[in-house]
Every structure is written in structure tokens, then in C-alpha cells.
Design brief:
globular; single chain; alpha/beta; 5 helices; 5-stranded mixed beta sheet; about 150 residues; 5 strands
């Protein structure tokens, strides 16, 4: 989670909403991401999506028949993944998601929805939330505080 927080700090420094994510497979980081929705002008450029894409690419290197699966991998995110990101985790068959702060307005790992543990789907993930939540929350609070100051 410390590495996800580093990604969140990078996002903060670039003026992005400070959310960071990493994907770990066999105790090795195989994907990193920070929010880049503003930079890329892309509403799908969430930290989790970027980390998932990078991890799928890393895990499939040199394997012709690899289809981008994240089997056995855990995504660490500073904030609870949304529906889009949670859906990508289910489709990629990740093992688990660990996040910092809950997202009561858009969280899809237990807060608003629980997509990743829905037994109607063909794959479910283990979920663990609240990890280093205070640190993750500080980035978001500072970001939105400075945004409000700018609007004055």
C-alpha cells in the first residue's frame, strides 16, 4: 500500500485527483498507476485501470497464449475501486483488492455496490479495506481543499 500512496502523491503533484494503485503478483509489483483523467482527457484513466493494463502487459510478456489474466495478483489502491475498475478486476480474474479509504458515493467493493464479491458472476475477489486509510484520506482532503481555494 505504501507504493500505491507514492503513486497518489505523484498524481497530487501533477494536479490530478490523488489516487494511486499497484498490482502485485508473486510479491513483485507488475503494474503501477495514478489517476490521469485530466492529463489524458480520458474519464477511464483511473489509477486502477492504468495499473491493471500495465500488469496484464507485464504478465503476458513472452507468452503468446496469455490473455491478460491477473490470476494470483492483488491490486492495492488508495481508494475503493469504482464500478469500472471493479469490473476490470473481475474480468481479469485478479485474486484480491486491498484499498485505503471507502467510497460511499461510487465504491464497488462493498460501499455502494459489491461487484467483486457478487456470486452471480463467474469470478469473485477477496476484499480488504481500510489499509493506511488515514494517509490516503489526507491526500484527497488536501487536494480538494486547494481546489476550493482556487475557486475563490
Amino acid at each position: 500500500m505504501q507504493e500505491a500512496l507514492k503513486e497518489a502523491r505523484r498524481a497530487f503533484e501533477k494536479g490530478e485527483i490523488p489516487i494511486g494503485a499497484v498490482v502485485v503478483h508473486r510479491q513483485r509489483i507488475v503494474g503501477r498507476g495514478m489517476n490521469q483523467t485530466e492529463t489524458l482527457h480520458d474519464p477511464t484513466a483511473h489509477a486502477e485501470m492504468i495499473a491493471i493494463t500495465q500488469a496484464a502487459e507485464t504478465l503476458s510478456e513472452g507468452k503468446e497464449d496469455h490473455r491478460g489474466s491477473l490470476e494470483g495478483a492483488t491490486l492495492y489502491s488508495t481508494k475503493e475501486p469504482c464500478l469500472m475498475c471493479a469490473g476490470a478486476l473481475v474480468i481479469s480474474k485478479a485474486k484480491a483488492v486491498v484499498y485505503g479509504i471507502r467510497d460511499p458515493k461510487a465504491g464497488a467493493c462493498g460501499s455502494l455496490y459489491n461487484l467483486v464479491e457478487d456470486d452471480r458472476l463467474n469470478h469473485q475477489l477477496q476484499v480488504r479495506g481500510g489499509i493506511l486509510a488515514d494517509e490516503a484520506k489526507l491526500f484527497l482532503q488536501e487536494f480538494f481543499r486547494s481546489l476550493r481555494k482556487e475557486k475563490r
